[in-house]
Amino acid sequence: MKEFIKNHRFVLICLLTLWVKTFIVSTFIFQVSTADMLETVIFILNPLSFILILFSFGLLMKPGVQRWYLFICTLLLSIVLYSNAVYFREFTDIITLPMLVMGGNAGDLSTSVFELIQWYDVLFFLDILVFAVLLWKKPALLTVTQLPLRKNKKVYGGLIGAALVVIGLSQLDQPENPETMTHTFDREGLIQRYGLYNFYVYDAVIHTRTAAQAIFSEEDEWNDINEHRAAYRALPNSEMHGIARDKNVVVISLESIESFVIGETAGGEEITPYLNELIEESYYFPNFYDQTGQGKTSDAEFMINNSLYPVGRGAVFHTHSENEYTSLPNTLRRAGYETVSFHANDRTFYNRDVMYENLGYDYYYSGSYFDITEENSVGWGLKDIDFFRQSMDYVEELSEPFYATFLTLTNHFPYELDEEDHFIDPLDSESEILSRYIPTVRYTDEAVRLFMEDMKEAGLYEDTVFVMYGDHYGIAESHNDAMGEFLGKDIDPYENVQLARVPLIIHIPGQEGEEVETISGKVDVMPTLLNLLGIPEHPRVMFGSDLFAQFRENFVVLRNGDIVTDEYMYTANTCYERGSKQIVHEEACSPIRDRGEWELFYSDSIIFGDLIRFRDVDDM
Ligand code: GP9
Ligand code: MN
Asked: What is the pLDDT of residue 293?
């Protein structure tokens, strides 16, 4: 043993530092928690299996090569670990392989990423620094020895055996609900059971499997899907049918605006005075939840335009932009609408140029259509007031009726805004992000007010239905303490799900509107709009239901598998009774949990299998 340590100092040190680093990050940043002793043991041991196998290959190499192999492996795994740690701070999620093709998006993310990096992050790479210096100055200290396979079968047997024991152990702890892992891609659960590095092996398998699904999918997969949809979808409200027939439709994505700002004040002033005013004469949905996955803004657009769920890994705009869809823009185009999207960003961002065309947008007014200067930009680009103002020139040229979507941008993390554009003071919160969020939300609110005035001035307001939604959360879970302080309540898992609510406003000029309590999500917008416009649902494939439907079910499933109904909320493996917030036996939630699993599973099957191509949708 002593001899082994003396001969293999470097491999042992690399193994130890990587193991410890991974454990620390998994515990304190990913906040993986374990329920019992077995889970804890598995969780502590699981990074080892991957590292042991990887380093075993190194032992076959000559000393000179082996040192570099170990160094590079340790560096690469540290980069994987670190990137995930940074990503988790904002997204509370793990990076998946399809996101790597979104790399093109990274350029624009620079302001956001910078904000997420902390000075103490150098600690992640301290070991690498020490190794580099030693490799350079005193390589002899980092002893390595080649172990030819033929003479060392026992050593390799032992190493691989140990790795297999660790993997085997994780099999002992079968999750109660294995579907959660596969249908909703419960990444935290996967990290807990298999460790971060093995997760990527698993992710690669899933990646290949989903890629193959389109090739092997068959028409009869529709049988189960149709049965599922028929069981749950509500008939649209007949009284509302066609009340907005032939009107223009304007859909505004309110970047990162969460429901908690609506009607709320900061320093005695309203955060969203205009939206509050508008809600008074609109349909407003206070229980509307964010169902986006890793594709954020684009996932929200996908749901609004298809009434299908986004995929669980990566952005569907990237992964399935060639599929056939029975989308809203396509539907409206066939009904004689001009269909356009406005967003002052590069046209390839989120692969929008490709996806928009496929979804049936006639035109995409992207960054190059706007006059973007240093003065009129902040953070991610053109400020919302200038964005709407400049868009108006194009809007006035559209032929009516039109369907126009607008994506705002100023209220994007990290919420930068020059003081001259502050209509409200920043909050005095321990979280700088939350403090800065308030003036940027307020700014977007003002931009929407001015846009609505412009629409009136252009004589378009009366003939237009307006839909405004918060695209996804704005304040990450890592700021929950500050959120709790601001809202004056403890943010437990229940309240955490409540914070996933985003505003939905449907404004129909001439209609009084009302607050509609129904529990819903983005997939419900398209059927609602179709009904208002008097367009039948058939043959479109939708998972949502009209928000005004008489016998609408109160149900929403979030992309991470959390469920909210009028009776229960299911999150973090816990079942809550909704009114009382009491924790009840998990079984009470199992029907809704299963229902949610299948809901996502069938929507995914349609997307992965490109199943709409088997349907006769020509008469859309
Ligand atoms: C980028 C904008 C922001 O074009 O939609 O995207 P997000 O980071 O919110 O997904
Ligand atoms: Mn967004």
From this structure: 95
Is 254 found in the same domain as 209? Answer: no
Cα distances (angstroms) measured from residue 529 to each of 242, 406, 541: 9, 16, 15
Whether 619 is in a domain gets the answer: no
Q: How far is the CA of 244 from the centre of ligand 1 (A)?
A: 30
Stretch (H or E) spanning 117: none
Q: Whose CA is nearest to atom 9 of ligand 1?
A: 297
Residues 485, 517: one domain? yes
pLDDT at 91 over 90: no
Classify each residue of 359-383 as buried b or exposed e, where b means 16 or more C-beta atoms within 10 Å of its C-beta: bbbbbbbbeebbebeeebbbbbbbb
410 lines ligand 1 (CB under 6 A): no
Q: Is the CB of 88 under 6 A from ligand 1?
A: no
Model-level pTM? 0.91
Closest residue by Cα to atom 6, ligand 1, is 297
Domain assignment present for residue 620? The answer is no
Order of strands, sheet of 464-470, starting from the edge strand that comes earlier in the sequence: 283-284, 504-507, 464-470, 248-254, 402-407, 338-342, 363-365
User: Residue 401, preceding bond cis, omega within 30 degrees?
Assistant: yes
Lowest mean pLDDT among 83-92, 459-468, 488-497, 545-554: 83-92
pLDDT for 28 equals: 87
The pLDDT score that the predictor gives to residue 171 is: 78
Q: Are residues 258 and 192 in the same domain?
A: no
* 510 shares a domain with 388: yes
Residue 545 in any domain: the answer is yes
How far apart CA 604 and CA 311 sit, in angstroms, is 6
pLDDT tens, 153-175? Answer: 999 999 999 999 988 888 777 66
- Asked if 446 and 560 sit in the same domain, the reply is yes
Contact 345, 366 (CB under 8 A): yes
Share above pLDDT 90 across residues of the chain, in percent, rounded to a whole number? 83
- Residues 175 and 165: their CA atoms lie apart, in Å, by 18
Across the range 178-182, mean pLDDT stands at 54
- Separation between Cα atoms, residue 352 and residue 302, nearest integer Å: 11
Domain holding 193, by residue range, is: 2-215
If residue 249 lies in a helix (H) or strand (E), which one and from where to where?
strand 248-254
The domain that holds 352 is classified in CATH as 3.40.720.10
Q: What is the pLDDT of residues 284-334, one digit of tens each?
A: 999 999 999 999 999 999 999 999 999 999 999 999 999 999 999 999 999
The closest ligand to the CA of 470 turns out to be 2
